[in-house]
Structure formats: C-alpha cells, structure tokens
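Hi U.,

Before I forget, here's the chain from the pilot set. I'm dumping it here mostly so it's searchable later in email.
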Amino acid sequence: MGAIESLEALRKENRELDRLISDAATLVALPTVSRMLDFVIDKVLERFVPDFLAFVIEPPRGARLSQFCYRNLKPSEETIPLDAYARIKDHFLSKPFSDRFETIRHETGDYPGLEAFSPELVFPMRGIAGLYGIVVLGHKVVGDEYSDIERMYIDRLTRFLAVGIQNGLHHQSSITDAKTGLYNHEFFMRRLEEELSRCDRVGSDACVLMLDVDRFKRFNDSYGHLAGDAVLESLALALKEAMRSEDSVARFGGEEFCVLAVDCGAEAGMAMAERIRAIIEALRIEYNGRALRITVSIGVCMLDPRLKAKDLLDDADKALYASKAGGRNRCTLFRPGFLGRATLLRAGR
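Structure:
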C-alpha cells in the first residue's frame, strides 16, 4: 500500500473514531434501555441490514432475561433459547471480545435451537459486575461478510451500550422491590412528595390507594411462604397491568401495596379502587396444581397539598383499616372529620 492509500485509510479510521465517540456520547445519555436499543438499531441500519438481530439482557438481580429480537430490523417474537444463552455466556466469561458464531460452535459444540437464526457474530455486553447479556448479529441481507471496520464499530458501540444498560439496570434495582419488581417504599415517597408539589402548583387532583391482602398470615400458615411469594408476584403483575403508565405502584412491605394515581378525583379514585379489588378477587393463582385465591382491602385518600406525605399515608391507612373492620374485600374513601378540618384551618394550611 502506497503512502497516499495509507493516509486515506488513516483518515477513514479517524472519521470512524470521531463518529463512534459522538454516537457513544448520545447512547449513554439516553434514559431507558428501549431508547438505547432503538438508537443502536438506527446506527446499524445506516451501515447494513442484518437478517437477524437480538439483544439478550440479564438484570443484575432476578432470573428473568429480557430479549429484543428483530428480523430485517423489524420486531420479532422469536427468542434466543435460554440454554444457548447460558452456554454462550460461559464462553465469554474468559473472552472479553466479540467472536464469530462458527468459532463459538467449534469450541463449545452445536446449538440446535440457535442455528436456525443463522448467527454470524456474537458480542458480549460486559459491565463492572460481569456479563449483562449478548448481542447476536445474523448475516447481512445484502453484501459480503462484515468488514473489519463494521465489526469494530459494532463491537465498540456494544461496549458503550453495556455501560448504558448497566447504569439503567442498577438505577432500576435501586428503586424497585426485588420480589415483585414494583417501586420500593423510598421511591414511592419521593414520587408522592413530587406529586404533592405538582398538585399545589397547578391545582390538579390525585389520590393514594393503600392495599392489604386479607388474612395473608393465615394464607402463609396454610400454604407456605413460597405460595405466599407466588401470590405477591401475581398480585403485583395484576396491579401493574391495571394501572396507567403515569401512575406509580409500589410494594410498601409484606403484603401491603400503594398506588399513586395522578389527575384523579375522589369518584374516579374509588372507581379505580373498586376495579382493582374486583380484578384481584377474580385472580386464580396456579401453584403446585392448586388454584389459589385472595382478596384485598383498599383505603383511598385524596392528596391535599396542605398535608405532609406521611400524614396522607396515615389517612389512607385509616381508610384501609375501615375496610378491614367493615368485613374486608372492600374499598373505603378517607373523609376527614370535624377535628381534622379544624386542625388544618387553625394551622393556616
């Protein structure tokens, strides 16, 4: 290669490096994993179209893998087999860089459930705590094999993706309950304080729903704590599916849960509570061949910017226990008595 060709190759490599630095800075600043993946896909599409692309992400806590698979860069319901992921993960524990699938297969054996995707390259997503997942790249739809520059770009972009995902996953772990995946007590209190300020500023309505599983101790004594865990996980999933994306759902501890419903008046809040109560009453939780059933009691309290967050939760708790005292499996709206109203007026709040 002559001097002119060498100079041009160096300029091209520098342009690629500048582009990578710019893309990496944008990538790690994105707030969610889904937006990070969308960004990576856009960058891949600028260069080539793979017939298959998969992101397999393993959270730092919990056993559930998240998979995002694409055929010709269109979302696909296909998934990487879990045993294939486990074997590839073991392969990359001692190898920090990407590898051709043929090389992995030669070293570790065949992958019957994975070979149907015609994978060509596999990239590890590595962070401080170890491997966070893999990226699987199929053959190009048009063109020859991946060039060294294309492979280098995807390899390095994947490393930055791993950093972004690591930050996102650890942040998510810090604000969620390990057992249910709902928000934890600390984060819910922060959201409640923020919503109180917003209600005071714009004059909007919001309410808190406090839920407690009826006779949960008796349930645990009858069926065991593992069955109780299965119930809590099913209840948490039902709550998440029942609520709007703008609402916040948290596990407060034990069998107690809280919901913050924004832009929601008293009538709508009670309707929401009744809908949740009915959904949970209708749940059939399969465990060891048995269909388990539960009910919940719910207390509803409207947000009042004149009150502190702790006071509001105390009022919601009072409404909850009014539901318990009234026979359980029912909803109660907290209504401040004469003494409570007088106290607010005297305090000038």
